[in-house]
Amino acid sequence: MPGANTIAALQAEAQAAVGRLEARALLRHQLGCDEAWLIAHGDEACAEVDAQAFRALVARRVAGEPVAYLTGSREFFGREFAVSSAVLIPRPETEMLVELALQRVPLGASVLDLGAGSGCIGVTLAAERPDLRVTLVEASAEALTVARANALRWAAANTALLLSDWFAGVGELRFDMIVSNPPYIAAGDVHLAQGDLRFEPRTALVAAEDGLADIRRIVTQAPAHLVAGGWLLFEQGFNQHAACARLLQQAGYGEVFSARDLAGIERVSGGRRP
After folding, report:
1. What's the number of CA atoms in the CB half-sphere (13 Å) around residue 231?
2. Residue 2 confidence (pLDDT)
3. Splitting the chain (274 residues) into consecutive groups of 10 residues, what average pLDDT does each group show?
4. What are the boundaries of each domain within the chain?
């Protein structure tokens, strides 16, 4: 029988508490190995210090702490992004915002990622399209540190970072496209007390005015920072597409649209400056 501290035994122990996928993710992180190594060395003994540290990680996960914060990374658009508790965890549904932006952004364009967080949106655009010039704006210095690490890893040549409260530090710069995943959850939303949201930064999740305050500010102020014909695209809440469409239309945007994600939820809204 394998000992209690073999790699396979530790995985089995953790799997009973958090499931196979999460157990293996935490074990890979603790041992600094890839999946192939983990498979090949299951019968080997694990150092006691690693076994104790791994069990501590599992206990934190059982208490609800997100795997991404425990491992310090999350995959997004095929790349591994550094994360910390200072930023939102990148989510698959946000990849649609990137896809829609890539469909619309012209060659050699300048792009502003507003409220960049981990930088997953802006850095992905810059990595996918080296011809773009992408500026990532973030009001949190801690979050900007995370975004800078991701920019240096994936798109150092065509990204710039700016500490700014929305457009406050942008000055008179204008862009061909502005993208954003702003706070859009209302303060009393029950989802804030569930799952990973319990651990994510409230300032990146919650907005006043039923979750629309920051979207309203972005929609209103973005035209001053867009070239003629420039696009604004942003993520929104599951029930906000009608309100967002009205805001865009009232602000004079053309080609206003909303797009559904794979779950059928209206996830992204946008429009074009005349």
Report:
1. 24
2. 44
3. 76 95 96 94 93 97 97 98 98 97 98 98 98 98 98 98 97 97 96 95 96 98 98 96 97 97 94 95
4. 7-63, 86-272
Query: What is the distance between the alpha carbons of residues 237 and 74, in angstroms, rounded to a whole number?
Result: 22
Name the DSSP letter for residue 140. Answer: -
Check residue 12 and give its pLDDT. Answer: 94
DSSP string, 101-129: HHHHPPTT-EEEEET-TT-HHHHHHHHH-
Quote the pLDDT of residue 4: 67
Q: Which of 124, 96, 120 is nearest to 204 (CA)?
A: 120
Q: Which fold has domain 86-272?
A: Rossmann fold (3.40.50)
| Predicted TM-score of the model (pTM) | 0.94
Q: In terms of C-beta density within 10 A (0-12 exposed, 13-18 middle, 19 or more buried), how is residue 4 classed?
A: exposed
User: Which candidate, 253, 256, 246, places its Cα nearest to that of 228?
Assistant: 253
Burial of 254 (0-12, 13-18, 19+ CB in 10 A): exposed
Does residue 226 sit in helix, strand or coil? Answer: strand
Q: Count the neighbouring beta carbons within 10 Å of the beta carbon of residue 114.
A: 28
CB count within 10 Å of CB 191 equals 13
